[in-house]
Every structure is written in structure tokens, then in C-alpha cells.
Design a protein that fits this description.
Layout: H1 5-27, E1 34-39, E2 44-49, H2 52-55, H3 62-74, E3 82-88, H4 92-100, E4 105-110, E5 135-137, H5 142-159
Parallel strand pairs: 3-4, 4-5
Antiparallel strand pairs: 1-2, 1-3
Helix pairs in contact: 1-5
Length: about 160
């Protein structure tokens, strides 16, 4: 699948970090999603994790938090040389923000068959409404990302019984 092995290793490295952030979010009672932003060379820029419950902010998805942090770090909203790594396929709100931030690339772990807006349910980056073409790589550490989400939801269901 990947012809550029060093690039693939970089994807795995940053997705592992995003998974660590997802675990932190899950332990805090958030849906466990984590995100990391790097520059095109793989240097760390920013990170985020779901914070909707802690911040009482419906927009505090991991991707949005990471985008805000990256924009503050770089002092620009145009993130055209940046790569976003996120454990779960972004929702419509996040997909829109990603397109508007002009990200170079999105790398995600597992498809979201309920609200995924990159490839699964909708395809916002390739739609006529998109003013930016985004490169997308899905399925990085897919099994680990899926298992973490499934385990978290199973634990939540058990606690709610």
C-alpha cells in the first residue's frame, strides 16, 4: 500500500501520539479522540483531544482544538504546510474546519460510519463546496484506534447499567 516506508513510519509515530491523547480524553470522560499537527517534515506543531464535556463547548473536538493551537503557534490560520493526524475520521464540522485551514494532508485512524465526513458518510474535501483540495490517508493504526473506541464505549455501557 505505501511505497514510501519512512513516510509510513512517520504516520504511525504521530498516530501513536494521537492515540495517547485519545486515552487521556477517555480517562477524563470524553469520547476518546486525539489529534496532532505537524509540519510537512514531521516536526510537532500542536495537539488536541476531545474537550466538549470539560469545556462545555460543542466545538471542542480534538481536531478543532489542535487547529486552534496550531494557528496560535504559527500565528496564521493558513496551515497549508501542515499535516493533521486524528484517531477517528472527522465529522462535518471538523472536516469543514480542516478544509478552511487549508491543511496539506489529513491522516486518520478509523472510519466513522455514522458521522464521518471525509470518506465514509460524506466527502466534504472532494465536494463542489470545498475551496481546497486536501490529501487524505486513512487506516493508519486502524485496528488500535477502533479497539480503543470500542473498549471505551463498552466500559461506558457497563458503567451505565
Amino acid at each position: 500500500m505505501f511505497t514510501n516506508y519512512p513516510e509510513y513510519l512517520m504516520y504511525r509515530q504521530w498516530m501513536s501520539r494521537a492515540l495517547e491523547l485519545a486515552k487521556i480524553a477517555g480517562e477524563a470522560g470524553e469520547i476518546p479522540v486525539g489529534a496532532v499537527i505537524t509540519d510537512a517534515s514531521g516536526n510537532f506543531i500542536a495537539q488536541g483531544e476531545n474537550r466538549k464535556e470539560r469545556d462545555q463547548d460543542p466545538t471542542a473536538h480534538a481536531e478543532i482544538v489542535a487547529l486552534r493551537n496550531a494557528a496560535q503557534t504559527l500565528q496564521t490560520w493558513r496551515l497549508h504546510e501542515c499535516i493533521l493526524y486524528v484517531t477517528l475520521e472527522p465529522c462535518p464540522m471538523c472536516a469543514g474546519a480542516i478544509v478552511h485551514a487549508r491543511l496539506k494532508k489529513l491522516v486518520y485512524g478509523v472510519d466513522d460510519t455514522k458521522t464521518g465526513a471525509i470518506r465514509s458518510v460524506l466527502n466534504i474535501p472532494d465536494s463542489a463546496a470545498s475551496n481546497h483540495r486536501l490529501r487524505v490517508v486513512g487506516g493508519i493504526l486502524e485496528s488500535a484506534c477502533r479497539q480503543h473506541l470500542q473498549d471505551w464505549f463498552a466500559t461506558r455501557r457497563m458503567q451505565n447499567k
